Amino acid sequence: MSKTLRVLAAAAMAALLTTTTAACSKTRSTDNAPADSGPALVGIAMPTRSLERWNNDGAHLEDLLKKAGYKTSLQYADNKVDQQITQLQNMINDKAKILVIASIDGTALAPVLQTAADKKIKVIAYDRLINSTPNVDYYATFDNYKVGQLQGQFIVSKLGLDQGKGPFNLEPFAGSSDDNNAKFFFAGAWDVLKQYVDSGKLVIPSGKKLPNDDAWKTVSINGWKSEGAQAEMDNRLNSFYTGGKKVDVVLSPNDSLALGIAQSLDSHGYKPGADWPILTGQDGDLANTKNILAGKQSMTVWKDTRTLGDQVAKMVDAITKGTAVETNDTKTYNNGVKVVPSYLLPPVVVTKDDVKSKLVDSGFLKASDLGL
Ligand code: GAL
User: To test the ligand 1 pocket, which listed residue (52, 54, 224) has its Cβ within 8 A of the most ligand atoms?
Assistant: First the structure.
């Protein structure tokens, strides 16, 4: 076949692909209505199904938007950045009017979001900020710095550090290095705890050097993986906790890491109610809430993801109707190119004493699932 024909065939194939993709995506998300008429299509990009909360986030937001008459395309990217970029490109090809994105790596989306901007598609960053691009219009999340502060303050009050108690053995952990939130969680906690590290009331036997908030990546666990945290905790306990030395407190930024850390403590013979350390968390995941009831985790910072979905649905509506989009923070979140107008929701501490009143009575978790 001559070179020209091959080029034409390729061009034809490309054209065919675009039309068929549009055609099949239309059927996938638009029930045969012509692409740019009828209700707006909202693309919802979630990072992964392997971390509990994102399943709730995606389902709740899609349900709200469908009930409001929008077409939706809800996609999960298995924590793979390329997969998320392809999914966003498909949503753009499908003529989405708005993209709601919980990014895996907030620094990797600038090119595809330029394509979106060229087509006047609005972008809402969901829970995690998108960095290094002007093409993000709004950000909705929880007060991420406050999440860390609540974990730090919980440790201070539980150990009596503000009463001069100590020294205690601390092991700090931080979230995934590609997640902008992880920086804020760590900074919130470390701005509370560092003074006690400096005064020697908190000692870090594993020798992790954390002179300032920017050092968080030296204790980060990639992908927020439980097994990554378990392996790291095993390593620290095996190497630095010999001869009867015990860990007194573990700063875990979220529940998926706390689960791995608890498994490591279990396998090293720590006993709840005896020598089990203070262990923090975040998200109110089911397995971790069970651990809280069993004395294997001390607290979790609950973020009612339903309220985040509600707020984002309001933003989508305002954008679609051309009315003012509600924000309550226009200072904190500079993504390296601009300060992104944001809406921050309040995180809440949950301990054994208020699992029922906060997580069960609000309908976030079922009593039957918790054995209550
Ligand atoms: C963060 C999110 C947390 C936690 C973590 C792992 O960005 O804010 O709630 O879930 O990701 O998924």
Answer: 224
The residue whose CA is least distant from atom 9 of ligand 1 is 283
pLDDT tens digits along 144-156: 999 999 999 999 9
Whether residue 159 is predicted with pLDDT greater than 90 in this model: the reply is yes
Q: Which of 46, 50, 53 most suits a substitution to test ligand 1, by most atoms within 8 Å of the C-beta?
A: 53
- Residue 325 CA to residue 360 CA, distance in Å, equals 32
Residue position matching structure tokens 């439980």: 226
Write out residues with Cβ below 6 Å of ligand 1.
51, 53, 127-128, 179, 181, 224, 254, 256, 282-283, 303
Q: Which atom of ligand 1 is nearest to the CA of 51?
A: 12
Nearest atom (ligand 1) to Cα of 54: 12
pLDDT over 90 (residue 335): yes
**What mean pLDDT value characterizes the chain?**
93
- Cβ neighbours around 292 below 10 Å, total: 24
Answer for the pair 180, 145: CB distance below 8 angstroms, yes or no: no
Is 9 within 8 Å of 17 (Cβ atoms)? no
Distances (CA, A) of 124 to 72, 77, 135, 347: 15, 17, 10, 20
Ligand 1 atom with the smallest distance to the CA of 224 is: 6
CA of residue 79 to ligand 1 center, whole Å? 12
B/e letters for 244-257, b = 16+ CB within 10 Å, e = fewer, are eeebbbbbbbbbbb
Under the banding of pLDDT at 50, 70 and 90, the label for residue 209 is confident
Count of alpha carbons within 13 Å of 132, Cβ hemisphere only?
10
Q: Which atom of ligand 1 is nearest to the CA of 128?
A: 7
pLDDT in tens, 43-78: 999 999 999 999 999 999 999 999 999 999 999 999
DSSP-based three-state secondary structure for 278: strand
